[in-house]
Input
Amino acid sequence: MRMVLAIVGASLAGASAVLADDATVASDSQAFLTPAPTTSFAPAAPQGEKGKGMHLGDWMLFPNIFVGASYDSNVYSTQTNPVSDIGLRLTPAITAVDDNGVHKTTLYANGDFYFYKSNPNADVVNGHVGVEHRWEAERDLVFQLNADVSRLTDTSTIGTVVNGATLRPTFYESYVASATVQKDFGNMFVKVGGKFLNDSYENTQTLLGTTVSASGRDFNYFAGLARLGYRVSPLFYIYSETIGNVTPYYNNPRFNSSGFKTVVGVGSDRVSLFQGEVYAGYQQQSYQSTAINTVDGAVVGAALNWFPLEYLKVSGSADESFGVTTIAQTGAPNGTSTYITTGQLKADYTLSQLWTAEVRGGLAHTTYFNTPRVDNAWTAGASLNFNLRNNIFLTVDNSFTDQISNFAGASYIRNISSVGLTYKY
Output
């Protein structure tokens, strides 16, 4: 499923289509069946420990909040007759850290809330609450435990049309728990772990008020990870990694599946100005549905950081994975599997003690098995922070999405701008 990680993630696919015969909202273009093979086999990372923080016993607390106005050029992400609106945006967050060297516990909670002036049906109330615990039992033996509960917007059904009416935003609750242990044997290291994820979708409505059930999209996800690596030198290591999964659906058994992704790669904790991994391998997913059967193929990807200047960091990632959609497609009336190639690039720059900036961009390319449909979702964005005084910042942010699809009604353009004040303790 979703590694609740930050990727340019599943294609922001909108679709004008009838639903498959189970009358459920489509889970369109979600790359969750075989997670990307990164070193962090864990749910969403907490908010960064920004600001000076405050002491509370053995804990350090890092609260921050953004309050501002927003403008959305296409609140329902429709291809025609877009509806624009202004509103209020709030992004509160707090991180608490207790680190004694052997044990490090991180608690976090954060939210991202949009309240529109004239379209309350498009309001967004999302957030994460979670915990991470790292136990360094020995210098060469490390345990990692993670748990995360979140409410998120299902971007995959944005713009979907049911019986002639556009769906309102669809939300789901995601429950994630994972554990890993890594043991070093000289230059060799072994890492094993497991992950459980449950996604439960809320029913939604069309803009005409018709309720649309999403019960057929609820599922569990079980995964296991094994990684074997060898440090060739202090600068480089090589590794082999396999992630296997089983994904049962509650009320839609034809999408039950199991599969694996196995890769080999080379990585570096830091060589010159670079850090990260590059990998290649093979992946396969087998579905209960005879219309889909088994899909497989090669996979290549990377997750890299570049530090060209002291105050400039450039991050990039790319991956290939399988997903599933329950939306009826030409040639696939009961839904089908998807193949998703994602890439993103982000630069963070501290211009001075007063100014910081971020620029980001990405692409999600999605093809649909047994159908001619192809989606390309281009994303771009930028944010700028100016320190007004002490811990108060003026923040300006803009996010742009342009989805281009050969499927009727699935293309759209959306621009969201925000301006306001950020407080970091």
